[in-house]
Design goal:
The chain is α/β, with parallel strands linked by helices and 199 residues long. Helices cover 26% and strands 31% of the residues. The strands form two sheets. It has a seven-stranded mixed β-sheet with strand order 5-4-3-6-7-9-8, with helices on both faces. It has a two-stranded antiparallel sheet with strand order 1-2.
Length: 199
């Protein structure tokens, strides 16, 4: 059992274990009490648990069934009763629903076929050849799932073209900027926050 700022959580060998990018995200969440929050790729559920303490409801999704099982245990252990888990890829599990805040620690690493582990863990970090395969899919559908004043926060790496993400968010009517950054080995991990231009 691991612990982060009073939250106790278990991990699973087939689930992405919270690391520097997770903790950078956790420390820079911009959540409001009234928010209905969506977290994509919840993993162990740590970010969903943190979010749930500061907002009305959280829907947390993951394509990895082992992540859903792991998150269930952690939600129960931390009495996070305002979080609902759903299995599925990106926005599939929430169809026509809209949210005040969408959170996503993206699979952002440029990855070749020979770098694959070959199990569910690949989905946590495999960003395709340029690191943008999942990021771009996410950005293409994001606007359909934001309320009129909806915001987004996502994590990505300097290896997967931060400027392109900011440009795509700006084109969707959001003011996007890097709101946190951390140097990690051969890359920089950033939190990008997009808020409505009218805000």
């Amino acid at each position: 059992m691991l612990e982060y700022k009073g939250i106790h959580y278990e991990t699973n060998p087939k689930v992405y274990e919270p690391a520097e990018d997770t903790f950078l995200f956790a420390e820079n969440l911009q959540i409001e009490r009234k928010d209905r929050v969506l977290e994509i790729g919840t993993g162990t559920g740590l970010i969903a648990i943190i979010a749930s303490k500061n907002c009305s409801t959280v829907i947390a999704t993951d394509v990895n069934p082992h992540a859903i099982d792991c998150a269930v245990k952690n939600l129960i252990a931390n009495k996070s009763y305002n979080v609902e888990l759903r299995k599925g890829n990106l926005f599939e599990p929430i169809k026509n629903e809209k949210f005040d805040l969408v959170l996503f620690n993206t699979p952002y690493l440029p990855t070749d076929e020979d770098e694959m582990v070959g199990d569910e863990l690949d989905t946590a970090w495999d960003g395709g050849s340029d690191g943008r395969k999942i990021i771009d899919q996410f950005l293409d559908d994001l606007k359909d799932h934001l309320t009129p004043n909806g915001r987004v926060q996502l994590v990505q790496s300097s290896l997967s073209d931060i400027d392109r993400t900011i440009k795509k968010l700006n084109e969707q009517g959001l003011n996007a900027s890097v709101t946190a950054r951390k140097k990690c080995f051969f890359e920089e991990i950033v939190v990008i926050t997009g808020i409505p231009k009218s805000a």
